[in-house]
Design brief:
Blueprint lengths: L9 E6 L15 H10 L4 E7 L24 H11 L6 E4 L4 H6 L30 H16 L4 E5 L9 H9 L7 H26 L7 E4 L7 H4 L6 E4 L10 H9 L6 E6 L14 H13 L4 E6 L8 H21 L3 E2 L3 E4 L9 H13 L4 E4 L10 E4 L7 H12 L3 E5 L17 E6 L5 E5 L12 E3 L4 E5 L4 E9 L16 E13 L2 E4 L3 H8 L2 H14 L5 E3 L6 E7 L2 E7 L4 E4 L2 E3 L6 E9 L7 E4 L3 E3 L2 E3 L2 E8 L3 E6 L1
Parallel strand pairs: 1-2, 1-8, 2-3, 3-4, 4-5, 6-7, 7-8, 10-11, 10-12, 12-13, 13-20
Antiparallel strand pairs: 9-22, 14-17, 15-16, 15-18, 18-19, 19-20, 21-26, 22-23, 23-31, 24-25, 26-30, 27-28, 27-31, 29-30
Length: about 650
């Protein structure tokens, strides 16, 4: 699907959640200064507010929900849109959905009710009450959307926020569930009904926007706060994807690399945004280090997403100039880079299957997949088990996925066409604890009785490993190889399982002797791990697991797209555009400087780092971008070899 015609590259999401006790809303707003701030900051789109979480409206309306601190006759939203459009800056419009304090206080029966019959809201604390979309509130919001469209259409976009599935036992929800034959006492039925309600209003509001624009999809449409891993179903309601990710605001630096690799293959244009804040939204006076902003925006750029930064305007309508000076430098750099990669195609050599039911947060297994493969410089996508696997030389099935009959058939056909497969941990077992596929080439002998075992790698996968037995902190199952299959790593079992009755030393029991069981078996183009290697890496980050995994991948994928001796923190991605191959190198290191906060203050310099890229033919030249500086290279055995020095955290290698 192509992007809406007004799709942009450098977005500013301008929060404006302003409580009713603020008396002087927009008092110091100057439309010319407002717009010029964004022009100077290289911004080409600003998301502005029609309605905030407090439920107040910021345009001229007869509705009593209009913010009481907004001067009579002052159309803040209208003036923002007009000022931005004068400078060619887009102005998509924001509407809060399930957070609306004004509606909740005016109509308490519209508030969602939990399974214990209590309103879904904070208990005598500052915070948001949550509305029930099966109540008349859905019509109330539809009326607000209709007014916005009548007053401002054609709009550049509508951003709906706070749109998760909200189970409820309100009278409206119970009536709705009973009409559909659901049991309000059943947690599964409540969740199912909540999702159906969400799909209902998403379809309704999407049709309203399309109708206001004569069905031409001129406006970009997004429903925020929904699980991105459900996009293979929900993309019919939107025309682009927005990835909200403030790493210091609760998302962490693991979220974006995980979720973006699932979104990319869905075929929708993508925007992402971080925040200018030191912490999270509405961190007034908080300002993120410039290196952190650059790192986060370069990550977005390298993964094919339009970039964005979030801010919150002061209630009086003013912006912090130092913040926009900083944003302007970052967006200026992004603007220089766009010509090389915007609209290009991201290359991947590996499909990693994930379970969409587990949601957006990676957990240990998703974190292990993302971190290990990223650090090993492989190019990979995350896909649902139902996806088409054609075109991927290697498929990985981590332990979060169950190989059912449908997936088994898909994988068999994939292998018959010459594909390669890695299966990890419980994914290798069916519901009865037997091998999920004959192609695995393994015999299973039950779950390991030991919570901790040791890995003794065969020399063929021991590259980078110290010559010793390496502890495996996660329990696996016992397996041996069938005839014709090869053990790549054996299991050394401990003397005994550690209990209060018998234990040894401070931690786990030491290794005893080599068992007959294997931790890793290769059968042709299939490699099976009896241990949950991805969960183990996500939970414990042992470099031994990364080395073993990488060496196994290279047995099936001996010529990966990118090879490098760069630091494990160096991130890579590969883009094809207009006959060029562009390789992003990103080098920053988040540091845990507070109890729950990772900070990036400086880039991690790359000095004479070797990079080798698989290319079908010898390039005419190799450039560093965006500086457009030619560098020497060698081409041999189907690969271009260069050495790179980059001191400021990001560079693009352009092979022409």
């Amino acid at each position: 699907m192509t992007a809406p015609p007004n799709f942009y590259q450098r977005n500013l999401h301008l929060d404006f959640h302003t409580g009713p006790d603020i008396p002087d809303v927009g008092k110091n707003f100057d439309p010319d200064i407002f717009a010029k701030t964004f022009v100077d900051a290289n911004v080409d789109s600003v998301c502005v507010f029609a309605k905030c979480h407090h439920g107040h409206l910021y345009y001229n309306t007869d509705s009593s929900a209009r913010h009481p601190g907004l001067a009579k006759g002052f159309d803040l939203l209208g003036e923002q849109i007009e000022a931005l459009h004068k400078h060619g800056i887009l102005a998509p419009v924001y509407l809060s959905v399930q957070c609306d304090e004004y509606a909740a206080n005016s109509h308490p029966d519209w508030i969602a009710v939990d399974q214990d019959g209590k309103f879904v809201r904070p208990n005598l604390q500052a915070g948001w009450q949550i509305l029930d979309m099966s109540s008349p509130y859905q019509d109330y919001l539809a009326e607000q959307l209709d007014e916005v469209l009548r007053r401002f259409a054609p709009v550049d976009g509508i951003f709906f926020d706070m749109c998760w599935d909200q189970p409820s036992t309100s009278k409206y929800a119970i009536d709705g569930m009973r009409k559909r034959g659901y049991n309000p006492h059943d947690d599964g039925d409540r969740k199912k009904y909540a999702r159906e309600v969400a799909y209902g209003y998403m379809e309704r509001y999407r049709k309203m926007i399309d109708a206001a624009h004569n069905g031409h999809n001129q406006a970009w449409i997004w429903f925020n706060s929904r699980p991105k891993v459900n996009l293979h179903i929900e993309k019919k309601y939107v025309n682009h994807v927005l990835v909200e990710c403030l790493p210091t605001g609760g998302w962490g630096y693991a979220y974006f690399p995980y979720v973006i690799r699932y979104i990319r293959p869905q075929g929708l244009p993508i925007i992402s945004h971080t925040g200018r804040f030191h912490k999270s939204w509405a961190d007034f006076g908080g300002l993120k280090p410039e290196s952190a902003m650059k790192y986060e925006c370069c990550q977005m750029l390298s993964q094919g997403a339009a970039v964005g930064i979030g801010d919150q305007m002061h209630p009086r309508g003013t912006l912090d100039k130092p913040a926009y000076d900083r944003i302007g430098r970052i967006f200026g750099y992004v603007k220089e880079c766009e010509q090389w990669v915007a609209g290009g195609k991201l290359l991947s050599e590996m499909a990693v299957l994930i379970d969409p039911a587990l949601g957006d947060r990676p957990g240990n297994v998703g974190l292990g997949c993302t971190r290990a493969l990223q650090e090993l410089k492989f190019q990979f996508d995350f896909l649902p088990p139902s996806a088409d696997l054609n075109g991927y030389p290697l498929v990985v099935v981590p332990e979060m996925v169950k190989i059912d009959e449908i997936l088994k058939s898909t994988l068999k056909k994939y292998l018959e066409k010459g594909g390669a497969l890695i299966v990890s941990g419980s994914a290798a077992l069916d519901d009865d604890g037997n091998p999920a596929m004959d192609e695995l080439g393994v015999k299973v002998h039950g779950e390991s009785p030991y919570s901790v075992t040791y890995l003794r790698a065969d020399k063929t996968i021991a590259d980078g490993l110290p010559e010793m037995d390496h502890v495996m902190y996660e329990r696996g199952f016992r397996m041996t190889a069938v005839s014709g299959a090869k053990s790549l790593c054996r299991v050394v079992e401990p003397y005994f399982e550690r209990t209060y009755e018998h234990f040894c030393s401070h931690g786990h029991t030491p290794p005893d002797k080599l068992s007959r069981y294997s931790a890793i078996i290769q059968n042709g183009r299939v490699i099976t791990f009896s241990v949950p290697i991805f969960t183990a890496y996500g939970a414990h980050a042992s470099e031994a697991y990364r080395h073993v995994l990488g060496n196994c991948v290279k047995r099936l994928l001996p010529e990966p797209i990118v090879q490098s001796n760069g630091p494990v923190s160096m991130e890579t991605s590969v883009v094809l555009k207009k006959g060029r191959t562009i390789v992003h190198l990103i080098s920053f290191c988040p540091v845990r400087k507070a109890a729950s906060l990772d900070i990036v203050e400086d880039p991690f310099p790359l000095v004479d780092v070797s990079v080798s890229v698989k290319l079908a033919q010898k390039p005419k030249r190799v450039l560093l971008a965006p500086s457009v500086r030619e560098i020497p290279f060698e081409y041999r055995n189907g690969r271009a070899h260069v050495k790179v020095t980059c001191l400021d955290g990001h560079v693009m290698l352009v092979f022409e």
